[in-house]
Amino acid sequence: MFLNRRTPELPTPEQALRGRPVPEFTVPSRHTVLGNPLVGPYPEGLEVADFALGCFWGAERKFWQTEGVWTTLVGYQGGYTENPTYEEACSGLTGHTEAVRVVFDPAVVSYEELLKLFWESHNPTQGFRQGNDVGTQYRSAVYTHSPAQAAAADASREAYQKVLTASGHKEITTEILPAEGRPFWPAEAYHQQYLDKNPGGYCGIGGTGVSCPIGVAPVEG
C-alpha cells in the first residue's frame, strides 16, 4: 500500500519498536461477509492457518471466498513489536508481516488446498515485496500451527519450486516457521474485510500464473 524506496531490511529485536502491553484499538466482533466471530476461541473441530502474501486487503478476500473457511481476519505477525499499529508495521521497525488468519473446517477444505491458494495468489520469489508494494511487511510467509502443517507447507514449497523453476521463475523466498512464539496481532477495524467495505479498493496481490500441485504431503492431526 506504500511504496518504500529505501532498501528493506529486517530490524533486530534490539532495533524493533517496543510496542505496548494492550492494543490501542478494538477489533470488530464479527466478519462482515461470513458473519462469524473474528477472534477466538473458535468452535471445536475448526483449525487455524496463518499466511502472509503481500498487502493483506486482497489476501484476506482470497480466503474468505473459499468454501469451508469459517472466518478470516488480518493482522501483524512474525516480528517483535507487541500490539503494533499499522503505521508502525509500515515503518519497517516491527519486523512483522501483513498476515491473514484463516479459520477453516478441515472436513470441507484441506490445509493443502489453502496452501495451493496461498502459493497461486502471489509471487513467492520476490523477497521483501509484492509487485509495487515494497517493504519487509510484504514478505511471503507461512506460520504453522502443528507438525502436520509444517510438513505440508515444506512439501508444498518444494513441489511449487519445481514447477516455478520449470517456468523460468526464481527461488522461493517464503519463510515457513512455527506460529508458536510468533503472536498474531489483529489489525485495526478498518483493515478487517477492507475490500468488502471498499469494493473498489486497492488490491496489490497477484500470482505467477503457475499452478501449484496439491496432494504433495499428507496432513494428519
From TrEMBL:
This protein's UniProt keywords: Oxidoreductase
An example molecular function term from Gene Ontology annotations: L-methionine:thioredoxin-disulfide S-oxidoreductase activity
Pfam families for the chain: PMSR
Keyword Oxidoreductase: yes
Annotated region described as Disordered, given as residue ranges: 1-20
Catalytic reaction annotation: L-methionyl-[protein] + [thioredoxin]-disulfide + H2O = L-methionyl-(S)-S-oxide-[protein] + [thioredoxin]-dithiol; [thioredoxin]-disulfide + L-methionine + H2O = L-methionine (S)-S-oxide + [thioredoxin]-dithiol
Xref: InterPro entries: Met_Sox_Rdtase_MsrA_dom, Met_Sox_Rdtase_MsrA_sf, MsrA_MetSO_reductase
Domain Peptide methionine sulphoxide reductase MsrA positions: 50-203
Active-site feature positions: C55
EC number: 1.8.4.11
GO cellular component labels: cytoplasm
Keyword set includes tRNA-binding: no
SUPFAM superfamilies: Peptide methionine sulfoxide reductase (SSF55068)
GO annotation terms (biological process): cellular response to oxidative stress
Entry's family note: Belongs to the MsrA Met sulfoxide reductase family.
Function: Has an important function as a repair enzyme for proteins that have been inactivated by oxidation. Catalyzes the reversible oxidation-reduction of methionine sulfoxide in proteins to methionine.
Protein name, per record: Peptide methionine sulfoxide reductase MsrA
Source species: Streptomyces arboris
